[in-house]
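Q: A reviewer asked whether we had any structural model of the full assembly, not just the individual parts. We don't, so I'm hoping you can provide one. Inputs are below.
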Amino acid sequence: MTATSEAATTSRVAAPSADQGRRKVDPTYLVMLLPPVVLFTIFITLPGIVGMFYSITDYAGYGDWKFIGLTNYQAIFSDPRILGAYTFTIGFSFVTVILVNAVALALAIGLNAKIKFKKGLRGTFVLPMVISGIVIAYVFNYLFSTSLPTIAAALGIDALAGSILANPSLAWIGVVIVTAWQAVPGAMIIYLAGLLAIPTDVYEAADVDGASSWRKFTAITLPLMVGYVVINTILGFKNFLNAYDIIVGLTNGGPGTSTFSIAMTIFTGFTSGDYAYQMANAVLFFIVTIAISLFQLELIRRRGVSL
Amino acid sequence: MTTTRTSQDATATTVPAGRPRRPRRRREPKEDYRVNWRLTGLLAAASLAVLLPMYFTITMALKTSQQAASGTGFSLPWPVNLGNFTEAWRLTNFGRAFAISVFISVVAVSGVILLASAAAFAISQNWDRKLFRYSYYYLLGAMFIPFPVIALPQIKFMSIAGLSNPAGVAILHILFQMSFNILLYSAFLRSIPGELIESAHIDGATTAQTFRRLILPLLAPMNATVGIFVFLFSWNDFMMPSLIVANPALQTIPVVQSLFQSQFSANYNIAFASYLMAMAPTVVAYVFAQRWVMSGVTRGAIKG
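A: Here is a predicted structure for the entire assembly that you could use as a starting point for your response.
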């Protein structure tokens, strides 16, 4: 239980002296450490293991079951509904991450410039972050399905006269817009923090040399912001791959199944009697999530960005 | 060619150079501060993207059903119909949903602050012990487990354990928010000099006393930001309560909005009054806690 002092050599903490390793650990520390570890094991690890176990059975969520090996996993790859959900969710996450980063960086640069009403504007742009996703989605649902078509019809724009949420090939755009609307503030604040860390001298020097604004942006701002772009990309993917609340309020997966997200397909396992099958889907989703995270971490490592 | 060289030289000499910290430049720029009005206008126009949906929600909430049923919804409500709020309150039983949301967020916030800060303190003080180090990595692992991945078995388990209720939601909120905050607290605690804690020990303080009297006060600004973010997450969450809480009468404010969609159906004015009431608590809290929200996101990003 008590670790040997050999561990102290790898210690990253300033405090512990070499002999502390041999002393008996103060029980108070165990009382502090154990509740999270125990709760975590009961509520997250064990259900996770049980779920993985069921993914190789034909368990329906009730009654008897038997092992069926990897049949569930094989079935997923020929299930258009699940494949569609992966295509939609990953594609939607990709587009939203790009949109959110572009808008957030532009806003942060604007808010960091010599402008009037800085505080008020900043406060306004952060506001969407604090509102519940499903409530925002209901508000935009009305805007997209009633207000926008009415305005478009009055202006004679036929292309937008119907609700974009009722159009299977356009509904995803609505989901992207609302998700971005809510996600921009968080990314923007991170960019603002990054911009504040850039010394103003750098820009002054560039001014002296007569650099254009665009040149200053590409040669100074962007390279110095790469680390923050990486953070925002990772956080963005982490959130968007789990998309649920906003889609439920906006399209509920429709029209048809055109905006059905991975989370939504997994949750159908509660009611549809294919618990084990959706559990296999969940395991696959976990692997995809980890793969995307590792891929991003690898990118970080290559760029030598320190977090 | 020459210009780039000078630019590099200028940067090299002025930026790092390890000069003694000089007074911050141009904090209060009196001269040479030309307001960029074009950009201000541009940003003000962009802020309409946030303000218009807000304006729209408010006007819709103040209309009569006839007004709400016609036009785009952007026209001003006249006469103002405040009755929507009482109607929405009565229909959704807002008072009860509010109490349940408050209960879940309060438990989640205090739970995360207490458990995460204590665990982070224990870990940072015993980093040389394998048990603590591995526990740390184990707990951080949760950051990579999205809720949908374990939702099916977890919710089954919650119902077996008799936790298909707000208390169960609060526990899961604590667990899913804990990892990241243990990371935050640990990063901060590592910056506290070990001598400080040692001297408390020498003065005869027990570990528990050191934590309560020394560490918790030091963590106060941290607790504020952690608290705000756990509150926002917990209060606004739809996914977990909608799946876990079995009894619709015990649902939180966001879930109630979806439960009453069919009742709202044609009465958009009442629906929007309900949405506005659902938004109000966090928006009001935000207005007062704006400063911490900003610094909190930054802190999370830099450390995380």
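A: Points you may want to mention in the reply: Chain A touches chain B through 112 residues (CB under 8 Å). The CA atoms of residues 111 and 119 of chain A lie 9 Å apart.
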